[in-house]
Design brief:
The chain has 393 residues and is of the alpha+beta class. The protein contains 13 helices and eight strands. The strands form three sheets. The chain has a three-stranded antiparallel β-sheet. Strands 6-7-8 form a three-stranded antiparallel β-sheet. A two-stranded antiparallel sheet has the order 4-5. Strand 7 and strand 8 (348-354) form a beta hairpin.
């Protein structure tokens, strides 16, 4: 059955012509429960309003805005350089992708050419960020299924990569290392060797994850055949990234529309076919190993010296010519993009962020939830890999 329904949806109340679902709780047949925002089985600062019949979910409604919100309007009231402390907060676990998309949009409208070494450095930063995002994802899915030790391992490995971020950028979470024109600095001496130590440690723990989680009978029973996304929904629901690749769609912007130096790197698009929770986790697990291989390639192939920042105007008095552009790339959750409009002043006229979490955690999750068991809601949400600030941005 397409969505692993335990009962026929038609027996439950259906949305009216306006799309609203009215459920009479006074009948005693249904109960309303809240999962989140302060709950271990929730993906960040959001909540899902569940209507249940027994232990089966009848409907789910997503609620966000419990933490960061309103980024786009905040950006439009800041100078171009002042936007940087804001963009990285749109996605805390993978902030660098926001830095890249915004910087690349500004560069295109301002006519700035980024030095070659800076593009290699940016690609390195993005793959390090992808690695960290996946570490958090694996910890989340394991925690949702009671495998707490995997979450502890992944937190440790992620912390080792944060050490490398701190060494390179001076910060562990919000780096603000990618700026219009390039990046803030070169690799420290001995960085590649210390990074290799981190990657080897990661591979050791990932091998343990495969034994403890992927070969676990309970994990298989609670992820295989559950939360299946029909590939027919990919296009209308805007499903991208690993969520789509787990259904056999081999789309990855690093291959389909190469940016930075991805066209000089050797890698394959990871796909699956079952489109369930198990396959979505497996695709991301293989993607982690691919990011490890990409980091090694980048450190081996990147130029040893050269400029990392182009000449740019005084950022305190920077006026960018009138225009508009959309810059996109492949984040750990799928297509990520920034739409930037300028009017010739010192401030952005309009900024719109295309984050995968909006479609995955709102429309798609609410479509998948009816018919699932209460105990399956947490891993279903985590398998879609969402970060709430991207939703109410």
């Amino acid at each position: 059955m397409m969505f692993n329904l335990k009962t026929d949806r038609s027996q439950y109340p259906q949305p009216g012509p306006d799309g609203k679902l009215e459920i009479d709780l006074e009948t005693g047949k249904y109960l309303k429960l809240w999962q989140g925002p302060n709950h271990p089985g929730i993906t960040g600062n959001m909540s899902v309003e569940l209507t249940v019949c027994g232990d089966e979910v009848v409907a789910g409604k997503t609620h966000v805005g419990y933490l960061h919100r309103g980024f786009e309007k905040l950006m439009e009231r800041r100078s171009f350089i002042q936007v940087f402390p804001i963009v990285c907060r749109v996605c805390v676990p993978e902030p660098d992708f926001n830095e890249y998309c915004y910087a690349a949009a500004v560069e295109e409208l301002a006519g700035i050419k980024v030095p070659e070494l800076a593009n290699w450095m940016r690609t390195l930063i993005l793959e390090m960020g992808r690695f960290n995002s996946y570490m958090m994802f694996l910890g989340g899915i394991s925690g949702a299924l009671g495998l707490g030790v995997v979450g502890q391992w992944m937190t440790y490995v992620r912390d080792l990569m944060l050490d490398r971020f701190e060494e390179l950028t001076g910060a562990r979470i919000y780096h603000m290392f990618i700026l219009p024109g390039g990046v803030r600095g070169h690799l420290p001496d001995g960085f590649a060797g210390r990074m290799e130590e981190v990657l080897r440690t990661a591979e050791k723990y990932l091998a343990d994850v495969e034994k403890v989680m992927f070969r676990n009978a309970v994990y298989k029973r609670r992820t295989k055949g559950i939360g299946v996304i029909d590939p027919k929904l990919f296009e209308p629901y805007g499903v991208t990234g690993p969520n789509a690749r787990a259904g056999g769609v081999a789309k990855d912007l690093r291959k389909d529309a190469p940016y930075l130096v991805y066209n000089e790197l050797d890698f394959e698009v990871q796909t699956g076919k079952d489109s369930d929770i198990h396959t979505r986790v497996d695709v991301r697990y293989r993607d982690i190993h691919q990011s490890i291989a990409l980091i090694r390639q980048i450190l081996q192939k990147m130029p040893k010296d050269g400029p990392v920042m182009a000449k740019i105007p005084n950022v305190l008095h920077w006026q960018i010519p009138r225009g508009e552009t959309y810059i996109k790339g492949e984040s750990s959750r799928g297509e990520y993009g920034y739409y930037l409009v300028t009017d010739g002043s010192g401030y952005p006229r309009r900024i719109n962020v295309r984050g995968p979490s909006y479609t995955h955690a709102m429309a798609l999750l609410e479509h998948l939830i009816p018919g699932t068991n209460i105990s399956d809601v947490a891993q279903l949400m985590v398998s879609l890999h969402t970060y709430p600030p991207e939703i109410e941005r």
